[in-house]
Amino acid sequence: MFHARLVQYTLGTGQRLVAEKLTKEFDKESRYLMGFRGNVYFFDDSSGEYRVVNYWDTKQDAEAAHKVISPKLEEVLQKYTNEKPTYRFFEIFDVIDDGDIIASHTITK
């Protein structure tokens, strides 16, 4: 079993390059934190909404990463928007549960 942290922020329309820059910057940083498993990014350029899901080994890893990354993200976002990001944490249920995050999304015969 592992955990996820969902972050949603709004930059407004026409901010794709800003979203890409932020994504690259924070992706690199998250990869060095304890318990990191992976990131998935969702871009909706038409609405200017962006999301990231980080996967972590434990709830404690997700919370510790949140304490490191969130203040930095919020500081950078102030340059582009008045809206604060939202955060949610989830426990991940993996049917396969063999530690491979992709295993439950592939078909095996």
Automatic annotation (TrEMBL):
Protein name as catalogued: ABM domain-containing protein
Write down the species: Bacillus timonensis
